[in-house]
Write a structure and sequence with these properties.
- By secondary structure, this protein is an alpha+beta fold.
- The chain is built from two helices and eight strands.
- It has one domain (23-140): Beta Barrel (Lipocalin), CATH 2.40.128.
- Helix content is 18%, strand content 41%.
- A hairpin with a 5-residue loop joins β5 (95-100) and β6 (106-114).
- It is globular.
Length: 142
């Protein structure tokens, strides 16, 4: 009887620990990610919203709003080509491989920081806002 109770306690502890571990995709898809540092007089808002297979970048200027949808998957390193079969399949990664659904352009972003409050990305291998300069996003409710 003691063995059964101990087994149940260990099984419950293991399930509880596993339930507390959030995947990269879990965190990405839980929030609206807002790039507060990029806001200014003309650029009023810049944010990303992720689902398990797509994300949308929205840029709000004082006179227009641009929305760019992308398919994406997570990877451990930048890849030379976009692998459609991986979209929505990988739950962990340090790189976001993206493909514009408008233009077909492929890009990759290295995840520098990802937690419940912050996402920092660097466009790989070159960042249009300066080589090696990350773009920081803060987590907001969707």
């Amino acid at each position: 009887m003691k063995k059964i109770i101990l087994s149940m306690i260990f099984a419950f502890a293991a399930m509880t620990a596993a339930a507390q571990t959030r995947t990269t995709m879990d965190i990405l898809t839980s929030y609206k990610w807002v790039a507060d540092d990029l806001k200014g007089d003309v650029l009023l808002n810049f944010f990303k919203i992720y689902t398990t297979k797509t994300y949308k970048t929205t840029i709000v200027y004082d006179d227009e709003t641009l929305e760019d949808p992308y398919e994406y998957y997570l990877s451990d390193a930048p890849e030379a080509t976009f692998d459609q079969a991986k979209v929505g399949q990988v739950k962990y990664g340090t790189c976001i491989m993206a493909k514009s659904t408008k233009t077909g352009e492929v890009s990759s972003y290295m995840i520098i920081t990802l937690n419940e409050t912050e996402l920092s990305l660097i466009y790989w291998p070159y960042s249009g806002n300066g080589v090696g300069k990350p773009i920081r996003f803060s987590a907001h409710a969707k």
